[in-house]
Amino acid sequence: MTIIDRTKKAFINQNVKFFLTLLSGSVIAQGVVFLITPILSRVYTDEMFGTLTLFSSITLTLSTVVALRYELSILLPKREKDAVSLLILCFIIITIISLVTLFIILMYHEFFNGLFDNGGLGRFIFLLPLGIFLHGMFNTLTYWLNRQKKFKSISFVRINKSLSMSSVQLINGFSAFQYLGLIPGLIAGQLMSFLHTIISASKSIKRNVHHISINRIFFMAKRYQKIPKYNTLLTFTNTLSNELPNILIPKYFGLAIGGQFGLAIRLIKTPIGLIGEAVSQIFFNKASETYNNEPTRFHELVKQTYIKLFLLALTGFPILFISTYFFEYILGSEWTETGIYSRLLIPWLFLMFLNSPISSLIVILGKQRSLVIYDLLLLLLRLTALVLGYHYFYNIIYVLVLYSMVGMVFNSFLIFYFIKLSKQADH
Fold it and tell me: Which residues cross the membrane (predicted)?
């Protein structure tokens, strides 16, 4: 075996090790959530789950763009002093936007209380800026830890987050404060994950802190200005279109059905996200290196990643589909609708599972503008499916079928588009 062959084999083994480290952390973290869910579903009502779903969706939609997507650029520079400047830039943006959000809620709290009253968010409306801040900081620091190849730390953070969230929700469910529902546990999990990530990243940040300057921060912000310019709108519209059912279903059909649907999404997306998120972190890292150093291998990397994801999906999704028939027995007799809703969404989630880890190539190739129209159209058609499904059928089943069909069509197109882009990168 030549030196080149040994080096290549070691590199492959290293990436497998990184993948397994992230995957094991995600499995344990989500395993905690899975184990605690049958207890929580018997302690809390479906209306309380509906409130949690609505709060989580609003927080997620806003927090994914709270750093204006500059966190994506942390992995891209070759020099550490450039990367740490981007990290501090993200911290500044997140803090400013979170404070502005708090100010807006304080100024117009009566309007927001009325807007979300149907979702039972009145008492939690002031926690939205905190949730946005914590999630945004955690997400940004995760990219920094990824750059430092601190995959074990990322895994521990995820486990800590699940344990903290589940523990508070469980204790609260059997206390006199049960009426507060599940949101305090969510905030507790976000807080612990933020503290854990900042501690894990502190040493590497301190090592590069002498490189930080206002001029360099502004320079890096300008250098990667295409990311917020195109990717912020792209991510916001994509996240909003994914979260639309969680926001509109409680409004149209009530908190009980919103809770049933929210738990269905949570249960089926969790195992999908276990592998998808781990692959996404590794792919982004590997794809960035390949594009910078070996661009002729970029298309092959994308193709092989798709093939591996497809084989994993062929194995896992039939098992996932069958498992939905047992939700009623696992969660309790009052959760019969959860399994039905889950089965309607699985075809769309199958295709989404293939695309989600690969989508970061848009950032690597600087093609954010090309997907803005795609995501705006997707958002419009998903909104149309939900609104028309409600007004013409007034049936949650028809609404979910229409929503799932729109997702299937658009994700099918995305597969061919990503493969085409990867071929162009070879040149």
Answer: 18-40, 52-72, 84-109, 121-145, 306-326, 346-365, 372-390, 396-419
